[in-house]
Specification:
With 481 residues, the chain is an alpha+beta fold. Helix content is 35%, strand content 19%. The radius of gyration is 25 Å and the shape is globular. The C terminus is likely disordered.
Length: 481
C-alpha cells in the first residue's frame, strides 16, 4: 500500500527548504521500471553524452511551496503507459560547513507546459550547471521512488542513502566534495550590492532567462529576505486583511470558468504558480473586472460575490492586487495609477476610464505577473468559502525583491511607454506637464491612459500627506485641483 502521508510528512518535516524534482521513468527506458528505479537508488542517474538532465527531469520548486505533495509525487506524467514510476530528487539550496554558508541555487517550478525542463527558462542555477556538466544526479540526492501499476499495486520506496539519512560525518564528506566541485556559489560573505547590481544589469540587458548567475542570485535574495507561511482565509478575515494592509492597492477580479470545479481549481493553482495571461484582443480590459482602490471601496465584502459565467454552486475567482506606486532598483518611485471601478453595467472593455499606466504595462507584457496575483477564491452554495493566498505576491517580498520585480516591469522596450512612465517619476514631477494630461485640449469619449493616471495622481497626492509634502512643497499651489 502506498503510504503517501508518510513521505509527504517526511518532506515537510525534514526537507521544507529543499527543491523537489521528478524523474518519470518511461516504458522506453527499460522493460522493468521498478528494477531501473532500484538501481537509481544505489547508483544515481547517469546520462550519455547526447542527453541533458533538463531533457528528462521536471522540477517542482521548493517543498514548502508545493500545494499537494502527494498529488505531485503520484502524478502520471506520461499517459498511455501501464505503470507509473516517479523518482523523487531533493536538492538543498544552502550548504553549511559550520564556518560558511554556500548558496548553490535550485531549479524552479517548471511551468513551461512541457513534461520536462527542456524548454524551461528558469531551470538553470549553479547546482544544475555542475550536474549538467557531469551528466549525473548523485544517489545521495535521491529521496526514493513512487511506483503504481494498473492492478492497484502502489508504494513509495525510501532511499537510505539520501543525504538527509546519512550520519553527520558522511553528510559532511558528501557536501564538502560537492562544494569543492561546484564552479560558482554565493556565500554569506558575498557583498549584497554586487548581487543587486548584477541583477539590475541583467534586467536592463534582457539577459535573465537561461542565466544561472542571475537566477541563483535572485533565489539567494528570496532565501535571505522572504519568509512566509501559507494562509487560508474566510471572507470576514480576508476583507479585514485587505482593508488593514492594502489601501494603496487596486483590486481586480478574474473569473475562472472551466468545465468542472476541479479543472477550475487546477487553473487557479497554475495561475498562482505562473501568471494570468491577458485576452489576446482586448488585453487587460478583456481579462479582469476592476473594483478600484481598496481605500475607496465601501462595498468590498459584496464585491467578492463575483460570478463570471460560472456555476453558482462552486465558483473560482483570481484576486489581483496592484500597487499604485512601483519602485525600481535605483530607488526611483513611479505612480502608475489604476483602472477605475466598472460602473457601466457591462464588460470592462466598454469602460471610458479603464486605461492607465498600470494597464499599459500589463498590455505590453501580455500577462498579469505572479507578483500581482494575490489569491484565489472558491465560494458557492455547495462549498465552504476560502481564499488561498499567493505567497509570491509583491507585498510578501523583501524590499530588494520588490524592487527587482518592479524594475523588470518598468524597463519596457516600448519607448513611448518608457517616456510616459518617466512623467510620473515621483522624484522628477512636473505638475504643469501632468496638468496638461489631466485636461487635454481635445476631449475624447475614451480617456487616454495618461489622462486617467494624471487625474488619479492629483487625487492621490491630495489625500496623501506624505507625498503631498514631498511633491507639492515649493510647487505652484494653483496646480492642486
Amino acid at each position: 500500500m502506498f503510504e503517501g502521508e508518510s513521505i509527504t510528512e517526511y518532506l515537510n518535516k525534514y526537507l521544507p527548504n529543499d527543491a523537489l524534482t521528478l524523474f518519470s521513468i518511461r516504458d522506453s527506458f527499460t522493460n522493468s521500471k521498478e528494477i531501473y528505479a532500484s538501481d537509481i537508488l544505489n547508483n544515481g542517474i547517469s546520462l550519455t553524452k547526447d542527453i541533458k538532465l533538463r531533457d528528462i527531469l521536471c522540477p517542482k520548486g521548493l517543498v514548502k511551496n508545493i500545494k499537494s505533495l502527494e498529488e505531485t509525487i503520484t502524478n502520471k506524467t506520461y499517459y498511455g503507459e501501464k505503470d507509473i514510476c516517479n523518482v523523487v530528487i531533493s536538492t538543498p539550496q544552502v550548504i553549511d560547513d559550520g564556518e560558511s554558508k554556500y548558496y548553490i541555487g535550485y531549479p524552479r517550478d517548471n511551468v513551461s507546459g512541457y513534461t520536462t525542463a527542456e524548454h524551461q527558462k528558469n531551470y538553470d542555477c549553479y547546482l544544475t550547471d555542475y550536474l549538467e556538466k557531469i551528466k549525473k544526479v548523485f544517489n545521495n540526492l535521491i529521496v526514493g521512488y513512487y511506483y503504481e501499476d494498473n492492478n492497484g499495486k502502489k508504494y513509495f520506496k525510501y532511499n537510505d542513502k539520501h543525504y538527509s539519512k546519512l550520519k553527520d560525518k558522511e553528510k559532511e564528506e558528501f557536501f564538502n566534495q560537492l562544494i569543492d566541485k561546484v564552479d560558482n556559489r554565493i556565500t554569506n560573505r558575498t557583498d549584497k550590492k554586487d548581487i543587486l547590481n548584477y541583477i539590475k544589469d541583467s534586467i536592463i540587458s534582457k539577459k535573465c532567462e537561461y542565466n544561472s548567475k542571475y537566477l541563483t542570485a535572485l533565489e539567494y535574495l528570496e532565501y535571505s529576505d522572504y519568509q512566509f507561511v501559507n494562509l487560508e482565509y474566510n471572507r470576514d478575515k480576508f476583507v479585514k486583511v485587505l482593508k488593514d494592509n492594502y489601501g494603496d492597492y487596486s483590486l481586480y477580479l478574474h473569473g475562472v470558468d472551466q468545465e468542472t470545479p476541479k479543472a477550475s481549481k487546477n487553473t487557479c493553482n497554475h495561475i498562482l504558480r505562473r501568471a494570468l495571461d491577458t485576452d489576446w484582443e482586448y488585453g487587460m480590459r478583456g481579462t479582469v473586472e476592476p473594483k478600484g482602490p481598496i481605500d475607496e471601496n465601501d462595498i468590498l465584502y459584496e464585491d467578492l460575490n463575483y460570478h463570471y459565467h460560472g456555476n453558482s454552486h462552486e465558483d473560482y475567482n483570481i484576486i489581483v492586487l496592484i500597487p499604485k506606486i512601483l519602485e525600481d532598483l535605483d530607488r526611483n518611485a513611479y505612480f502608475i495609477g489604476y483602472s477605475r471601478r466598472n460602473t457601466t453595467g457591462s464588460m470592462p472593455k466598454v469602460m471610458t476610464d479603464f486605461s492607465c499606466l498600470a494597464s499599459d504595462i500589463i498590455d505590453d507584457i501580455g500577462y498579469i505577473p505572479q507578483e500581482f496575483i494575490f489569491a484565489y477564491q472558491v465560494f458557492g452554495s455547495d462549498v465552504e468559502e476560502k481564499f488561498f493566498i499567493n505567497t509570491q505576491h509583491i507585498s510578501f517580498l523583501g524590499d530588494d525583491l520588490q524592487r527587482i520585480a518592479c524594475t523588470k516591469l518598468l524597463k519596457r522596450n516600448y519607448e513611448r511607454l518608457r517616456n510616459n512612465l518617466e512623467v510620473f517619476n515621483l522624484d522628477k514631477i512636473d505638475l504643469e506637464v501632468i496638468e496638461s494630461y489631466k485636461n487635454p485640449l481635445i476631449q475624447t469619449r475614451m480617456k487616454s491612459s495618461m489622462q486617467t493616471t494624471a487625474e488619479e495622481f492629483f487625487d492621490y497626492i491630495n489625500s496623501n500627506p506624505k507625498y503631498y509634502k514631498k511633491i507639492i512643497e515649493d510647487k505652484p499651489k494653483s496646480m492642486i485641483k
